[in-house]
Backbone:
């Protein structure tokens, strides 16, 4: 099981999760600053104020990447560092930081893959309505232009949004992510405005840069359970997957999505010309995959199950279907997040995307796992569970390529243990351990395993660690 020489091996992080320096050099507050500083919103009251201090340690961090042989690094740019108030004055110090980071990567032979938005909306824009407001779209398109003009000659690939499903449904409907709102109609408005912001940003990026352009979606791989499960799967597929691929890749929202959510909104926020703007050619479709989900129609008896992998936060991530569809527990094994381990789901997803969009190039932009690993007596982190997880998922990706999927690369999540959103520092996804007291970095066995995979491009025989 060898990967072709053209296949890109990388790792990924997000700005708020690793950078720290929350108030440094002109950076403005984001919705995650506000949310994490609100009592009860994150585990142990953890915040991203310091995180991994990547803002000050970026040079040694990219030395670490180079030492592992990473060919690409997928990072996000913090909108509040560039335009602290969301629109208007540009903070040159913020642009300078990312310029240094990009130049440092290029000097070490690492391709910069930059995501414009990984959930850290400037708080000023949220105060004006956030993603539920159409005004945020224009601000995002202008921010995309600013960044592209500054870095577009050196970035290898742009990503507009990371997981807009999370931004819309968890941020505005379920309430477990910033800004913590529980308004079903606002969540669906956010879906549309994020889609529109993506399309307008693609246009701005292409006008200012010759780099490839992508978007990253977290696809839900669904299983049905029991009588009527086909309709349950259809409903959740519409909300989770086709609400984004429909307008982005086909130029229309699915009719069943509109019908399923008619009791929540009339979709009057969709204006003439919006769908034309949203549907823009993509060089790459980014695919994030972690686990599967099992759904069925609720029979109205007993307590409804909500095992969708997210902590209860008072609202719903499934507007229009939250009283119809229940998420049921799946068989293990599980990661420390409680997510089931199902590498075959990745193969299924990639093959399905090829069948739906046969001309679309794909890339795994996130895959990884949190486990409760720790430093052993020998001073190392023997994270055998993560090594096994990664080996099996890379094998699943390879199987999809054997089935004809045009898969161009794979980014392991995450390079570093970091601030895991509402879970604070309680969950460790990194292939490199971070001691959050000293901020010392320690590559785990999984990092050494990954370095060997990159060097040999082979999953056979079992690689040493």
Residues:
């Amino acid at each position: 099981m060898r990967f072709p020489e053209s296949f890109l091996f990388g790792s990924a992080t997000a700005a708020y999760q690793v950078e720290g320096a929350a108030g440094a050099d002109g950076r403005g507050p984001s919705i995650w600053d506000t949310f994490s500083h609100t009592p009860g919103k994150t585990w142990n009251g953890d915040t991203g104020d310091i995180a991994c201090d990547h803002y000050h340690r970026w040079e040694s961090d990219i030395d670490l990447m180079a030492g592992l042989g990473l060919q690409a690094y997928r990072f996000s740019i913090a909108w509040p560092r560039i335009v602290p108030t969301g629109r208007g004055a540009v903070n040159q110090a913020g642009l300078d930081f990312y310029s240094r980071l990009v130049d440092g990567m290029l000097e070490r032979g690492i391709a910069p893959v930059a995501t414009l938005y990984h959930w850290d909306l400037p708080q000023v824009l949220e105060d004006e309505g956030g993603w539920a407001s159409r005004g945020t779209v224009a601000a995002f398109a202008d921010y995309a232009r600013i960044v592209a003009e500054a870095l577009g000659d050196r970035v290898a690939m742009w990503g507009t949004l990371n997981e807009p499903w999370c931004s819309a449904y968890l941020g505005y409907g379920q309430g477990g992510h910033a800004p913590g709102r529980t308004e079903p109609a606002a969540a669906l408005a956010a879906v549309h405005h994020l889609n529109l912001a993506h399309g307008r940003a693609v246009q701005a990026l292409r006008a200012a840069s010759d780099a490839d352009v992508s978007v990253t979606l977290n696809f839900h791989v669904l299983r049905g359970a029991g009588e009527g499960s086909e309709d349950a799967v259809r409903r959740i597929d519409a909300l989770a997957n086709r609400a984004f691929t429909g307008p982005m890749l086909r130029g229309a929202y699915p009719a069943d999505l509109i019908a399923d959510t008619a009791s929540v909104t009339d979709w009057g926020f969709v204006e003439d010309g919006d769908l034309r703007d949203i549907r823009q050619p993509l060089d790459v479709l980014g695919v994030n995959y972690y686990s599967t989900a099992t759904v069925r129609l609720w029979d109205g008896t007993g307590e409804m199950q909500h095992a969708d992998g997210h902590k209860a936060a008072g609202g719903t991530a499934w507007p229009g279907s939250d009283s119809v569809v229940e998420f049921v527990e799946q068989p293990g094994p599980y990661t420390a997040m409680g997510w089931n381990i199902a590498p075959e789901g990745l193969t299924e997803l990639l093959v399905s995307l090829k069948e739906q969009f046969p001309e679309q190039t794909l890339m795994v932009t996130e895959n990884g796992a949190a486990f409760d690993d720790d430093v052993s007596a020998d001073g190392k982190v023997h994270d055998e569970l993560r090594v096994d997880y990664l080996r099996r998922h890379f094998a699943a990706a390879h199987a999809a390529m054997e089935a004809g999927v045009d898969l161009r690369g794979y980014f392991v999540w995450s390079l570093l243990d970091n601030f895991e959103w509402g879970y604070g520092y309680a969950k460790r996804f990194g292939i490199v351990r971070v001691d959050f007291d000293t901020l010392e970095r320690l590559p785990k066995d999984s990092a050494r395993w990954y370095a060997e995979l990159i060097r040999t491009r082979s999953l056979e025989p079992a690689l040493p660690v």
User: Anything to note?
Assistant: Residues 224 and 295 are 5 Å apart (CA to CA). The chain has one domain: 8-222+239-289+338-456. The radius of gyration is 21 Å.
